[in-house]
Amino acid sequence: MTDQLASGGSTTELRHVVLSALEDFKAFDIQEIDVSDQNPLTDHFVIASGNSSRHVKSMAENLVMRVKAAGFQPLGVEGEKQAEWVLVDLNDIIVHLMQPKTRAFYNLEKLWEASSARRSNAAAPA
């Protein structure tokens, strides 16, 4: 992906908007994962927790509003109805907002860490 987005803003600017919005909306355990070497669809995952379905849904709605106000256009939002895990697709950044139980079950951080390790091992010379 490129650092310049179709909206005219940069991935760095979008990242700043996302992280400050999540902090403002009281998200906790915010993690960033660079997946640019592993995923052709996006460069970064941001994973954050909310303490209830209402909190997760509210974070997603407010994140979308904040991103739009900054001049970026979200590509989509999935999972708002149940709000155990809401995905906000911002093209170069995909934001995963999860309740702690769901986050512990899927453990995306470990999944992508393991994927990176497998790729590194596969690329090692024989």
Structure description:
The N and C termini lie far apart (30 Å). The protein is globular, with a radius of gyration of 15 Å. It has helices spanning 11-24, 53-69, 100-106, 108-123; strands at 28-34, 44-49, 76-78, 85-89, 93-98. The longest helix has 17 residues, at 53-69. α1 (11-24) packs antiparallel against α2. The model is unreliable at 1-7 and 117-126 (pLDDT under 50). It has one domain: Beta Polymerase, domain 2, CATH 3.30.460. With 126 residues, the chain is of the alpha+beta class. It has four helices and five strands. It holds the Pfam family RsfS.
The first-level CATH class name: Alpha Beta
Low-confidence stretches: 1-7, 117-126
For the sheet with most strands, the description reads:
5 strands, mixed
Task: Tell me the CATH architecture.
Answer: 2-Layer Sandwich
Outline:
The chain is of the alpha+beta class and 126 residues long. It has four helices and five strands; from the N terminus they run H-E-E-H-E-E-E-H-H.
Characteristics:
126 residues; ribosomal large subunit binding; 4 helices; cytoplasm; Ribosomal silencing factor RsfS; disordered N terminus; five-stranded mixed β-sheet; repressor; alpha+beta; Beta Polymerase, domain 2; disordered C terminus
Give me the secondary-structure topology.
Elements: H1 11-24, E1 28-34, E2 44-49, H2 53-69, E3 76-78, E4 85-89, E5 93-98, H3 100-106, H4 108-123
Parallel strand pairs: 2-5
Antiparallel strand pairs: 1-2, 3-4, 4-5
Helix pairs in contact: 1-2
